[in-house]
Specification:
By secondary structure, the protein is mostly helical. The protein is 45% helix and 0% strand. The mean pLDDT is 76.
Length: 60
């Protein structure tokens, strides 16, 4: 009986720590809005010229 109470106590403490870490990470995460073109959110342009995928030449 005592072993099950100790296990239950450890499980509850572990779950509280996990929930705290998940909450802390979620409050510090910023999601970029679609179409938001601020300087810090601009993605790097691909230097490869965009081509039709059907016209890509495979070189061996």
């Amino acid at each position: 009986m005592k072993k099950s109470k100790v296990f239950l106590l450890i499980a509850i403490i572990f779950m509280l720590i996990v929930f705290y870490v998940v909450y802390d990470m979620s409050t510090k995460t910023k999601f970029r809005k679609f179409g938001d073109e601020t300087e810090e959110n601009k993605s790097v342009e691909d230097s490869v010229e965009q081509k039709d995928p059907m016209e890509v030449e495979i070189r061996r």
